[in-house]
Write a structure and sequence with these properties.
This protein is mostly beta strands and 94 residues long. The chain has a single domain, classed as Domain of unknown function (DUF427) (Metal Binding Protein, Guanine Nucleotide Exchange Factor, Chain A). The protein contains no helices and nine strands. The strands form three sheets. Strands 5-6-7-8 form a four-stranded antiparallel β-sheet, with no helix packed on it. Strands 2-1-9 form a three-stranded antiparallel β-sheet, with no helix packed on it. A hairpin with a 2-residue loop joins strand 6 and strand 7. It is globular, with a radius of gyration of 12 Å. It starts with a strand and ends with a strand. InterPro entries: DUF427, DUF427_sf. This is DUF427 domain-containing protein. Pfam families: NTP_transf_9 (PF04248).
């Protein structure tokens, strides 16, 4: 079971992540939505498409753009469409 942890709190948990480029992508129904707020940030990956971001907030502390997902992934990355990955200090552990 993979867990995404930030500020000593499990923000996502799944035994069905997809690993791409050393990042675990969590199915959208496995994130604890109470900790996520959509951000206005976007970035572009040449082969996955346009990424959108979430700010993760736990116990009043915000971690801006600490999670990302591809709402409309390219054909090559359809398997992770909507799945959520983490960085910026969010630990992903087994």
């Amino acid at each position: 079971m993979m867990k995404a942890i930030w500020n000593n709190t499990i923000v996502a948990e799944s035994d069905d992540t997809i690993v791409i480029e050393n990042n675990h992508y969590f199915p959208p129904n496995t994130i604890n939505e109470q900790y996520f707020t959509k951000s206005e940030s976007h970035s572009h990956c040449p082969w996955k498409g346009q990424a959108s971001y979430y700010t993760v907030e736990v116990n009043g502390e915000k971690n801006p753009d600490a999670a990302w997902f591809y709402p409309e992934a390219s054909h090559a990355a359809k398997s992770i469409e909507g799945y959520v990955a983490f960085w910026k200090g969010v630990e992903v552990v087994e």
